[in-house]
Fold each of these.
Amino acid sequence: MTKKALITGITGQDGSYLADYLLSLGYEVHGLVRRVALEAPETRFSRITHLLDRVTLHPTSLESYASIFHVFSKHDFDECYHLAAQSFVAESFADGFSTMNMNINGTHYVLAALRELRPRCRFYFAGSSEMFGNVNEVPQNESTSFQPRSPYGISKVAGFHLTRNYREAYGLFCVSGILFNHESPRRGFEFVTRKTTSTVARIKLGLANELRIGNLDAKRDWGHAKDYVRAMHAMLQQAQPDDFVIATGQTHSVREFCEIAFAEVDLDYREFVKVDERYYRPAEVDLLIGDASKARRVLGWEPTYTFRELVKEMVASDLAELRSESAGGDFSRKGAKVQSSTNHV
Ligand code: NAP
Ligand code: F7E
């Protein structure tokens, strides 16, 4: 029988790759989107343009229990991937309240609606290496303690505990993936990798002359989003619910990322990168490196992209995108299947 999956955050980097992956496996894919997104599909749906005619979208507010309840009352999903979140750490310092409200309550509402209406539906929570924060162990695994350094990290720790509590208290199949940084050509422009590769492309084409950036010494375990969405799916196929770290096991500094990205277009990053204090965070996570041996052993999961391949793909994609924009590229609008919700939400 065809499996039916719901993805919150389907318009984001991971949601779009996960939708691609589940469709390739024969799933019926549904997504929750903000109502406002329907007003500007050209920008809001840019990552899912290619699959709009193969998914069903539900305009829903994740800040309203009634709105989420309504979707679950109409549809019996086999799997729910809860990816929607305010995901930019820097923004969480600027507005901790909205990050907390969205990330914690949104997760709680989805879990509560599942418990009430669809207790058989399996649930995935998008946990994060930011939960480890000020790490007391290198590399970090499923037993490493959480010492978050940002409102974003704190909100993810709360979501992680909520997810575990619903599993233990109500017997729901609820799991958290503790995913380390993962990037791609679909990454948001504000994250350091895409900010770098998009600016490298602009510099190469003569449209910019510098990259203003913050802490070059921060180190991250960067993988490719395409690899990481396979792990999300694998977690929901297990006999027992459990949490997993997903990471490459290698760490690189922001400086190394810049060096390789500029070198891809035969430029020396030292000539273009300008450190700007505005991009420093009030509290930094200095070093992240994950130990995904449990995922390798239990899920049979392996990353397929190397760090260099990731950087190369992102630079090439940004160059191609910019060249096509300069040549007058166009957004082709496709019809999405949008299910109307009730008027009161
Ligand atoms: P992303 O590209 O920023 O996508 C976030 C998604 O959440 C978008 O679909 C966005 O919708 C939606 N969203 C944000 N605020 C919302 C709100 N108030 N109401 C409804 N929807 C809202 O993030 P991502 O990189 O795909 O990450 C997916 C999830 O994994 C997030 O929970 C993130 O925190 C977590 N995570 C990411 C990484 C990583 O390295 N990428 C690592 C660990 C965990 P709009 O398009 O309408 O804004
Ligand atoms: O920063 C440093 C910055 O914003 C990476 C999210 O997906 O991964 C992501 O969070 C590092 C930090 O990602 C700039 O200080 C220097 O040390 O790309 P980022 P993040 O904060 O690691 C985790 C796992 C998530 O869960 C999050 O949702 O780069 N950095 N200069 C900079 N960062 C940015 N954004 N911009 C700079 O100019």
Note: The two ends are 32 Å apart (CA to CA).
Amino acid sequence: MNLILLGPPGAGKGTQGERLTADGGLEYVVTGNILRAAVKAGTELGVQAKAFMDAGDLVPDELVIGLILERVRSEEAKDGFVLDGFPRNVAQGEALDAALSDLGRDLNGVLYFDVPDDEIVRRLSGRRVSEAGRVYHLESNPPKVDGVCDVDGTPLIQRDDDRPETIRKRLAVYHEQTEPLVEYYAARGLLHTFDGTAPAEEVEAHLRKTVSTLRLEDAV
Ligand code: ADP
Ligand code: ADP
């Protein structure tokens, strides 16, 4: 099972990706978390990526593509992966296709979360994350104890790029650079669209149904 989660920032990719991969069967590759870890560790990649991330721009392809394809080719991903936050433009999509073709593997499906811009602004403004990148929301998905992760007890923070000015910039970047991927995958019959405005449990149930169907098709 090789899957992509596609949708605007704040659409619920992380929330659903955590659930879909909780049993450990599929390698979960979260581009934003990988980049944020590099920034925190102060690696050369992190230093270069930081300015783009703070501005709400995409980090240049030269920095991102090799990094993510390395994970796709890794031993951990040999039974399948869920990509979250990659590809984010058509060039990245093409690079992924080329890498999979080299590996003799195919994409099974692209799970696309459809959420309008006004809801995105609400979601990103209320999002809080743990150190490990677990996702909460002040209203729709609060932690059991204020300000603390349910799972590991680390403090919850607001991401620097989840502030109003940057949110608007990220949405513009999404519409301009990432949204063309919807058509890119639809044209190949890989796109499965979900109403991302439904409650998380409903979205999860729909996703699981689709993934089960894709598994059956893959087994044929
Ligand atoms: P969200 O969860 O809100 O969609 P991410 O955590 O995926 O946001 O991404 C945060 C930032 O990391 C992006 O605004 C961008 O700067 C950078 N980033 C993440 N994925 C990519 C990618 N595939 N290509 C370029 N930049 C990326
Ligand atoms: P993405 O990874 O696509 O950027 P997240 O999973 O981080 O999105 O979700 C963004 C914010 O919206 C988080 O605060 C999350 O708790 C909240 N959220 C996710 N799914 C839903 C949903 N179905 N309904 C309401 N809020 C949601």
Note: Strands lie at 2-6, 27-30, 81-84, 109-114, 127-129, 135-137, 191-195.
